[in-house]
Amino acid sequence: MNDTPERVAIVGLGLMGGSLGLALKQVSGGPVVAAYARREETRKMALQRGAADEVFDDPAAACSGARLVVFCLPVLAIPPIAVTCAGSISDSTVTTDVGSTKEHLSRSMHDVPGTFIGSHPICGSEKTGLERARADLYLESVVVLTPLPGTNPAATGTLSRFWQSIGATTVEMSPKQHDGTMAATSHLPHLVSAMIAQLAGDSDLQNVRQLSGSGIRDMTRLADGSPEIWHDIVASNSDSIARELDRLSALSGKVKELILKKDFPAVQRFLEESRRARRELLG
After folding, report:
1. In the chain, where are the structural domains located?
2. Homologous superfamily of domain range 177-281
3. Fewer CB near the last or first residue (10 Å), C or N of the chain?
C-alpha cells in the first residue's frame, strides 16, 4: 500500500468500520489495523473475521501510534469521542470519518490534533453491524473528500490514496456542497421511504401485506436503516433537508392539483418527465 500509513485506527466496528477493516486486510502489504469497539462480543468477532489485527475497549488506545484514524460512528458521536482520543493523536495524523454529513464535523473537530478531512463513501446498506460487513463494500464506490480551503494538500493526497488502495474513487467538494447534494439524493429519499412505511402501516395491515408487491418493498427498504444513525444525519443537516422537503411539498401540491382538476394528460406529462429525469440521473 504505497504512500499510505503503516498503522490505521478504526474507531467503531459496525458495517462501515468492519468492512473497512476487512478491505484493508486484503491489501498486499497493507497497514496494521487497530480497532475500537464498545462491546466485547464485537471485538472478538473482529479478530475472528480478520477485520482487525488488534482490538481495544478504549478508543484512545486504538488511536495510539496510528498515522490515519477513521471514525466510523454516528456523526454526532464523533467529536466527543475524538476529543477523548486527542492525547493519542499527533499533529501529523490524518483523521477522517465515513459519515453522511460534513458541515457539522468540519466545524466540530478543531480541538482534535492532526488534520481532519471528512470522507463520505457512497456505499453501504440499510443493514447494520459487524456481522453484515464485507470486504468488497468499498470496491468501485465513490468517496467524497471535503477538505477545507486551508487543508494541507499532502494530507488530502494521503487520504485519497488510502481510499483508492481499497478500490474506491475519490472526488473533492466543499462540506456545504456535499451536504446540499446529499440532502437531495440520500436524506430526502430516506425520509420519504419512512413516510411511505408509516402510511402503509396505518392502513388495513392484513390487506396491505396481502397486496404488497415489489413496489412497496422497494420504496420502504430505506426505512429499515438505523434510527440512531439517521437521527444524527437529520440533526446535522437539518437546513438542507428542510429545503428539500419544501421542494417536495410544492411538487406534491402541484400533482395533487392536477389530479383534483382531472387533468390527466398533464399527469401523464408529469410521469413522462419523471421517467426522463430518472434515466438522465442514472446515466
Report:
1. 7-173, 177-281
2. 6-phosphogluconate dehydrogenase C-terminal like domain (1.10.3660.10)
3. C
